[in-house]
Structure formats: structure tokens, C-alpha cells
Specification:
The structure is a homodimer. By secondary structure, chain A is an alpha/beta fold. The first copy, chain A, contains twelve helices and twelve strands. In chain A, the strands form two sheets. In chain A, strands 3-2-1-4-5-6 form a six-stranded parallel sheet, covered by helices on one side. In chain A, strands 7-8-9-10-12-11 form a six-stranded mixed sheet, with helices on both faces. In chain A, strand 1, helix 3 and strand 2 form a beta-alpha-beta unit. Chain A is elongated, with a radius of gyration of 22 Å.
Chain lengths: 340, 340
């Protein structure tokens, strides 16, 4: 039956993608660059591509504006994830992974712009400006940049080892919320299956990525959850974290709160406020259905996506909580309800 | 390339499996039976097989000892999941799905035993006794009984519709913990990919299965988490729910607590006690690594599996908590630590 890889399934490459591969083939010193606060898709794509290009005999370095979080340690076995120190290594090709605006590289942007190297963008995000790169390997229908790194490696006929498989799997599960989000398509799961056949152990990877929470998080979470209020027949869930978190440890990461409250059947919108300092609060807003939290957050000077947005708002916690609840309720009153 | 279904991939059927298919082909009135408190794998397998057999022109009824939980409502669109009312419908073949001991059907067992119908077991659990069935379609390496229902339908060349795809997907995600457990193999993910290509929407299914938690659960959870204590450098996490839950709503389902505490990096063992009535407590114990909570629970008259066990223990909550912590610490002292 041959190899059931995604490149085979998807068939033909575009002319632009073929040109991108040709540029990669011609380049011998590759610098792989990620975005600020690189996530698992960015880091996984870098790890997979770096290892594949090394197998093909090229010189490869990885440099990011920020260091990887500890949960991604497994990606770095035998591979250095460099952190920008004011200089770029010598390179003839810069491969920019999981972003399409140079500004996403923060302090690296001016140096990359001045560098004489060619620029290749490998990405799945939409871009509406004028192309500033020399070549691109882009597919906005791909669930993760890791899918594109995989297609590139297969097209270059790079040897695939277990570390590459693990890196691509890390990309996939990061950007699909472990195969739960609506971008989880057949290609993603066929690829994940191929990666398991190549040695990926999902349970070990899950534990390494998601079961490394800090020991004081459950107590921090308890304090934040205890401040929960519902509005609009349970369609709106609101909670917050005051400075000091009521004597509990601070909750550093809001995701567990947002996930738990989204899992409540009646809930359509979750608002979570954290008091950053006296008089300044950070709002995180999530929508389960069609309610647009981006529109809500824009009213407070923030923004993001329809289903996930945020804002930093001046005011006391109680005052800000009252204002955002009021604004959210206005929106809900004129809104049809659940998407499904 | 033909159809990438699992039956094709796996190749040959065993003689026993071929005989099982032959029995199904010959039967015209099929009764599909599940186990007590049927889970998503049992119900999904029943739904898929029932719809496929109906498409093949057979009479089909489903009867279980208990009604499906509300989260499985989607499986029953246009298909009746009957609940045992003291009688069995007329049938010439009983198909027993996701179990291999008649006792798992509770009050249905004596009637099934007396019935003159043939018995076909479709299951992935190990069985060490003497076969009591007429035929079986068993593979203990399958991640879910739904995988076997799928193989049966493909071998029978049953028409596959979106409802069947959704039912099989429900089976897969139930028994693999949404593709996180170590039984998630390449076949499972290739099959999941095929099911998506046939119309399954993972995000909608995830929401329907896992985002239907009760509105008072977060407050109940907050109260239980606030009673958390760690022992043995954070390797052991212990919490409980007294009667009345300290004024918060009762926490009916322990899974969210157990999941949250297992996600803490240092934690190897989680103990969660619920006071059922004065003087009686229920222990739920979970292990992340190799620590055997079955051995622990057996000391208190309970049992289960190495990684998930329970016991009902007489005594006040404080007394029971002290005793189980003591016993767990003895075990941890002589135990090597993390599995990975």
C-alpha cells in the first residue's frame, strides 16, 4: 500500500511550496526561528525540521526570542534550543516557523530584517499583507505548523526517527487541544497514527506535557473557584483572583479555571479576572459557542479571537468585575444561545 | 488505494471470528445486550452494530440492565436503547458487547442463560474461564469494543452512515481517555481519522460528552480541593468530602478531583475519601506510575486495578483518612518512585 503519509494523501505541492523546498535543498546553513513565548507547535516544528535537516547533512541552529517552557524538555534531547543573546548565528537561510510577521520575533526582528540571508516562512496562520519573504510553505487549512514541517521533511526524503515523530506529535496535540478542537481533521489523526507506529507513546507524552502542574495549583484553584458567580441562568460564569488570592497560593495560569468553567453544561461565556496590582486587572474571556468575546474585550481595549480574548483594564477588582459582567450581559441578552 | 479501514489493515480474521460473522449473517432477530451502568464504549458499540444490522435488513433490539447516561443521548437518535423491564424481546441471537461474564448483565443474566437463543460475545477484555458462548469476536489488543464492532460491520459489508461513525468514535474516545491512555494505538487513530472523514466532528462530540458538567460542580470541587494535603514530598495527595461538603454543594463525581490531583507533577498517588454516611467512607485511589493502589485498597476490603481502585471503609472520616494515609505511606516508603 506504500506509505500512508500526509504528503502522499494530499497529493501535489503548489508551485510556491516547490520553490520553498528547492530553497531548502540549496541552503547549507539553516537558522530556525520561532516566535516569542514559543508554544508546542512552534517548538515541535523546529525540533522536527532541525533533526531532519541535520540528517540531510546541513548545518542547523535554532534560536528563539524566549526559552522553551520546561514541559518541552523532551524536544531538546540532543538538540540545542538557543535563546537570542543579541547576535544571530551565521546562516544563509532563515526558516521562520509558526508565524508570519517578523515582529513576532521581538528583539530578533531588526537583525533578521538586516541579515542578508534568504527568508522562508513555514506557517498555517492567515496573512493578509504583502509577502516580505523569499519563499513560503503555507497551508492555512493545516491543523498545526507541525503538519507542514512533516510535509517538508517527507518531500525532502529526510530520514524520520522517533525524536522527529515525537516532535511532530507535540505540535499536533498542542494546536488541536489534544485532538479536541474543531481543527482536528482526518489528516491530523492519520498523521498521529503514523507517528505512533514510529514509536510515539501518547500516554507518556500526555503525562510529560500536561501532568506537570505545580503542587500549589489545586489550592490556588480552590480559592478562585470559590469566588464563582453565575449570571443569565448559568450562561455566564464569572470568577476572579484578588491580590493575595484570599490567603491561598497565587494561581499563575488561568487555563485550569477557564477549562473547568467551560465544561459546565449551561455555560456559554467565561470571564476570569486577575488583579495584577492595585487598580489594574487582567481579563481572560472564553466562549463555548458563537458569542464573540473578542467584541467584548475590544470594548475594554483588548482583543483576540471570537472564542478566546483578553484585556488589561484599569480599576479596582470589584469595579472591573461589575463593568465586564454588565457588558457581557448586554451582549448575551441580544444573543441566540448555544451554537449546538 | 482502496479503503484504509482497520479490517483491511489488520488482514485476516481468525477462524473463531469468521464463525462469529457467519452466525450473525444467519441470524435475523438480534438482541444487543450491554453491561450494567453501560459506558460509552458499550453504548457506542451497540449503537454502531445495531444501525449496521438494521441497514442489512435484520430486526434489532437493544436492551441493557441500566439506562444510558444523558451524555450519550446523541447515540439514541432514531434508535431505542431499551432498559430491562423483566422480559427479553424475542430473538434468535443475543450479541453481548463489551463484557464476557453474564453476571455483568445483573438481573438479565438468569433470563439470558435460560433463553434458547445463540450467544455471541464481542469484547476486548481478557477472559480466563471456560467459553460459555456459541461464538465470539474477541481481540484483547483492541483499544475499545467499538473497534471490534467496526471490524464486524466492515466484514459484513454493512452500509456505514454518519451515526455509525459517531457511535464508533464515542467508543474509541471513551476507552482511550480521548486518545490519552497507553492503549491508543495506530489502528485507533487511523480509524478515528476515517470516522472524521465520514462526518464526525470531534469538537462537537467532545462538548457533548465532556462539557455537560453540573453548574454546582465547580463550587463543590473548590470545597474538596481546599481540604488537600500532601505527604512524602508531594508524592501522595489526599483530600476528602465530609457529609455536607463544608456548606458547599455535594460533589457527586470524584473524577474531576482525581484528574486534577493526578496532573500535579510530584504526585504519584491520589487518595480521595467521601463520607457516605456517619461511620462509612468511600475511598477512591489512583496511581500515576507503578505504585499499586489495588494492593492498598485490598488491605481495606476493596480492590480494582493497579492504577485505579476503591474501597468502602467503616469509621469516621478523620479516622479513615489517618488509616489510609498511614497505609499508603508504608507502601510509598518501600517504592522506587516515578515510572518515567
Amino acid at each position: 500500500m506504500g506509505d500512508p503519509s500526509t504528503t502522499t494523501r494530499r497529493g501535489e505541492l503548489t508551485a510556491e511550496q516547490s520553490a520553498a523546498l528547492e530553497l531548502l535543498r540549496r541552503s547549507s546553513r539553516c537558522l530556525l526561528v520561532g516566535h516569542m513565548r514559543p508554544d508546542g507547535d512552534c517548538l515541535g516544528s523546529q525540533g522536527a525540521l532541525a533533526r531532519g535537516l541535520l540528517h540531510l547533512g546541513k548545518q542547523v541552529s535554532i534560536v528563539n526570542p524566549d526559552a522553551p517552557a520546561a514541559v518541552y524538555d523532551h524536544l531538546g534531547r540532543g538538540l540545542a534550543y538557543g535563546v537570542f543573546d543579541g547576535r544571530l548565528p551565521e546562516h544563509d537561510l532563515a526558516v521562520l516557523l509558526d508565524f508570519n510577521e517578523l515582529s513576532r520575533t521581538g528583539p530578533m526582528a531588526p537583525l533578521l530584517e538586516r541579515a542578508s540571508s534568504r527568508k522562508l516562512v513555514v506557517d498555517h496562520h492567515p496573512y493578509h499583507g504583502r509577502p516580505w519573504w523569499d519563499a513560503s510553505f503555507v497551508d492555512v487549512s493545516a491543523s498545526a505548523t507541525g503538519v507542514l514541517a512533516w510535509r517538508v521533511l517527507r518531500a525532502l526524503e529526510a530520514p524520520i526517527d522517533a525524536a522527529i515523530a515525537s516532535a511532530v506529535f507535540t505540535s499536533l496535540v498542542t494546536d488541536t487541544g489534544w485532538f479536541r478542537y474543531s481543527n482536528t481533521d482526518a489528516e491530523t489523526l492519520h498523521l498521529a497514527a503514523d507517528l505512533i507506529a514510529r514509536g510515539v507513546e501518547p500516554a507518556a507524552l500526555y503525562s510529560g506535557l500536561f501532568q506537570r502542574r505545580p503542587a500549589d495549583e489545586p489550592l490556588a484553584l480552590a480559592a478562585v473557584l470559590a469566588r464563582l458567580e453565575y449570571f443569565a441562568d448559568g450562561r455566564l460564569a464569572v470568577t476572579d483572583q484578588p491580590l493575595g488570592n484570599g490567603g491561598a497560593p497565587p494561581l499563575e495560569d488561568g487555563d485550569p479555571v477557564l477549562d473547568l468553567l467551560r465544561s459546565v453544561e449551561t455555560v456559554e461565556v467565561v470571564l476570569y479576572l486577575r488583579e495584577l496590582e492595585p487598580g489594574q486587572c487582567k481579563l481572560s474571556a472564553r466562549s463555548k459557542g458563537t458569542y464573540d468575546v473578542n467584541a467584548l474585550c475590544r470594548r475594554f481595549g483588548g482583543g483576540g479571537h471570537v472564542k478566546a480574548s483578553g484585556a488589561t483594564i484599569a480599576g479596582t477588582l470589584d469595579d472591573v468585575r461589575r463593568r465586564v459582567v454588565g457588558a457581557a450581559l448586554e451582549g448575551l441578552a441580544g444573543h441566540g444561545g448555544h451554537a449546538h
